[in-house]
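Lecture 7, part B: from sequences to assemblies.

Below are the input chains for today's worked example.
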Amino acid sequence: MRVFIMFDLPVETKAQIRTYNKFRKRLIQDGFLMMQYSIYIKSCLNKDAAQQTVNKVKRYLPKDGHVRSLVITEKQFENMMILVGDEDKNIELLGDNRTIEF
Amino acid sequence: MSWRVVHVTNVDQMSLHLDSLKVKRGDDELKIPLADIFSIVIEDLTCKLTGRLIVELSKHNILVLVCGQDHLPETQLLPVTGHFGQHKRMTRQLEWDDDKKGELWKKVVGQKIFNQTRIMERAKIEQPRINRLLNLLSEIEPFDRTNCEAQAAKIYFNSFFGEGYHRSNKEIIENAALNYGYSIFHSAIARTIVAKGLLPSIGIFHRGERNPFNLASDIIEPFRQIVDAYVIEQPPDEFLTKQYRLDLINLLHSRISIDGKLQTVIRAIDIFVGSIIEYFDTGNKIKTPNAKKIAFHEL
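Predicted structure of the full complex, as structure tokens:
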């Protein structure tokens, strides 16, 4: 399963920038990877784990702005076409493979 | 929810970055969330680890194995305290009842011998040999006083590798493969024991004075057959290649039946150890891994 978190946060005042940075950092700490600006993904073992992840994000949402989440299966994720550019190495690495080799 | 195994053979440096393991190799920098990681096997003798990372790995109860030049796991990272209720858990463990220990050991050996018969059936060993094991299975006493375990093991291993076979013979390549697989399982079990706040050196049956993981040596018994089955079905070549070692590590993801469901070995260890704690606390049923059904994990 892949969990998407997509957001738009206001960054006009200093306080808003701080909120934005904090939120972004928490996402990364929770294991999310930046796929594109404002789009973060995380791979989870199963549906329950995905739901748990979303619930966890809900606990530190910013007050303003716009945030949405989406859960899709690994298969659906693989079907995503990249029209321009290359796949990020880290995103490629962190799929549903249980063993990671370096 | 830790489920990934990281196998390191060629890396420059590993450090911590925002609750993730940052791996540096040449110009590449890759990050893996610590919460996802179950274990890290380090085979690269020149790889650098930062102290900060080691602390966080231990806080997340991640099993870290460092292998020697022979690629066999040599040392392991264990947290000083792995569990918040550690003191209580340890005092209880020291008071574990002797009768109950005897019964538990009987059950563990029984399951081990049963699992061995399943593996023999998988490999199409002739029925009389399997029957000899089933006979032993019905004769086990508490604490296995009549030593059925060793008798069964002899028949079991000789069925696969011939009559002259001996487990301690280092010349036999299968032994090296088995030892590698066992030591991976052994450490994974030790990690779970510590994570649950138990003392790994106080066993149920094993009481080796110089074995710091007596309890893990007890618990591993009914799991060994997964390694056996793999090594029997896919024998190694002349020496343990990197791919073969990786395959053996991958056995942690193979599935075994426990409590009526197929679970990964990582999860099954967790359920088994948890049920042992409950057994001593409340007398609940012990959930043992059953090789009636096993499935290997494919990459």
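Note for the exam: The two ends of chain A are 23 Å apart (CA to CA). Keep this in mind when comparing with the next example.
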